Amino acid sequence: MIEKVNPQHPDKIADRVAGALVDLAYNKDKNPKIAVEVLIGHGKCHIIAETNVEITPDEANEIVQRIAGDVSLDFVLVPQDKELSKNQSQGLRCGDNGIFKGVPLTQEEAELSSIARSIYGLYPFDGKYILNNKDLIVCQSNADSIEVSDEYNLAFNPLGYWTGGPNVDTGATNRKLGSDMARSVTGGGLHGKDLSKADVSVNIYAFLEAQKTGESVELCCAIGDKEVNGIPYADIVEIARKYISEVGGFEKLAEWGLF
After folding, report:
1. Which helix (H) or strand (E) holds 241?
2. By the 8 A CB rule, do 136 and 148 touch?
3. Residue 9 has what DSSP assignment?
4. How deeply is 178 buried, as exposed, middle or buried, from its count of CB atoms within 10 A (0-12, 13-18, 19+)?
5. CA quadruple 159, 162, 168, 172: dihedral positive or negative?
6. Angle at 132 between CA 130 and CA 136, to 5 degrees
7. What average pLDDT does range 46-65 have in this prediction?
8. The pLDDT value given to residue 96
9. Which of 70, 129, 155, 180 is most buried when burial is the number of CB atoms within 10 A of its CB?
10. Cβ proximity of 147 and 138 under 8 Å
């Protein structure tokens, strides 16, 4: 059983805004330090960004308007903590405490990912999708009906027609990690952070290793570690950097997550 939400779900809008701000930081610095939290809904967007690069309110507002539409922005920019910044002063080191898990995707998970993208291609509005064996639940806003393969037992919009989006519901960063990571979810958030954060790089590394080997991967690390599981942290960062570049950036990663 697995759930996916699409890029117009309010939580994913928050993730996308956070990802776009991280992309902007990387346009200003090869290895920026940034952590972003976004809360959006009902015409307002609140952002707190801890970073060592300068992001203007106008730059943040342009991102919010492009992704979320005409909303009022409350933007707070603060410098990264001085003690934490020392951690990276002599090269990339682990920027988080945490445990991380990579789990191979099941056929059901890959199947729902494909279904969700297909429906979203026709209805680019807020939507949620659940697959349990061949029972498919589709809650798709701004749609009167959809067509899916006869192999699925479809339950479509049980409550009826709905509009969705951030004018109906609020969205917050990293609130849909199950949709983004399937069974690989642990405590760390995937979005709104630079690559020095293990929540990003080690999560991506563990997930990719699990897909490559077909075996689950469990790792742990602490702030300041130079290696994770015997692998230089800088190497893990470069693996994650390459992956994010291939998907099109942090904002694009935020659209659907890792699958």
Report:
1. helix 233-247
2. yes
3. S
4. middle
5. positive
6. 50
7. 97
8. 85
9. 180
10. no
Place of tokens 């759930």: 3
Residues in Cβ contact with 169 at an 8 Å cutoff, skipping those fewer than 6 apart: 10, 41, 126
Tokens encoding 98? 């945490």
The token pair that represents 140 in the structure block: 């798709």
Q: What is the sign, positive or negative, of the torsion defined by CA atoms of 139, 144, 147, 150? A: positive
Residue 81: per-residue pLDDT: 82
Note the pLDDT tens digit of each residue in 120-153. Answer: 999 999 999 999 999 999 999 999 999 999 999 9
Rounded Cα distance between 172 and 11, Å, is: 5
CA distance 257 to 110: 12
Q: How far apart are CA 71 and CA 73, in angstroms?
A: 6
Where would I find the beta strands (DSSP E) of 120-216?
A: 127-132, 135-140, 153-156, 171-172
- For position 91, what pLDDT does the model report? 78
Cross-strand bridge partners of residue 174: none
Closest CA to 103 of 193, 219, 12, 206: 206
